[in-house]
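Quick one, T. Sequence first:
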Amino acid sequence: MIRGLDTLYQSVNLLEKRQENISGNIANVRTSGYQAKELFQSTYRQVQLHNFQGGNNNNQRIQYDGFTFGNYLAGSYLNPAKGALQQTGRATDFAINSDGYFQVRMNNGQIAYTRNGNFRLNNQNQYVTQEGYQVLGTNNGPVTATAATGIPNFSIVSFPNDGNLQSMGNAYYTSQTAGTPVRAPQLEQGSLEQSNVSTSDEMVSMIQTSREFQANQKALSATNDTLQKAVNNLGKV
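Structure tokens:
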């Protein structure tokens, strides 16, 4: 019974993390370039149960079937699917219509990656993000807007596995390894890539998570009643 409470605790803790992740995805459904974050769980290794209540003296080992103590959060990954492109008509908006990410330098000097091309121009006529992060060019320096037509020389890099990028929030991501420059990236000026979050899928996941919460609540109530009877009734015998 005590093991049951521990298993239920781990299950509810996992469901809370799933619910937080779903809420985060839904909150960013309108964030340009946002990639949905997915969680995956695993089951703890099965352990063998036994006791020594066999034989006349209750000292012989009896082997029972295996028991699993529940599931745990094994990790997360980003959904690399491309979002739909939406025309904005703004000259400072850019969408990547291929693999890759814009490179930006944050205020602390850290390099981050994003597919959100909703840029603006600073006082030096350089492209920056809405948060003021510097957008990098192929020379790893700032990109200055010019009167000449054509796509600016942005630095676009790709990764072998986009799902391993770490989310920093607001469609910014980091990587422990440097990206590989993309040759001839396909960029569309005057457009933005929309979030790839599927609201309908997230709502289905939320309903499923809610039902699992209810099932765990019922199991917890039943376990608590059994434990209460064991303590109050069996203890009198």
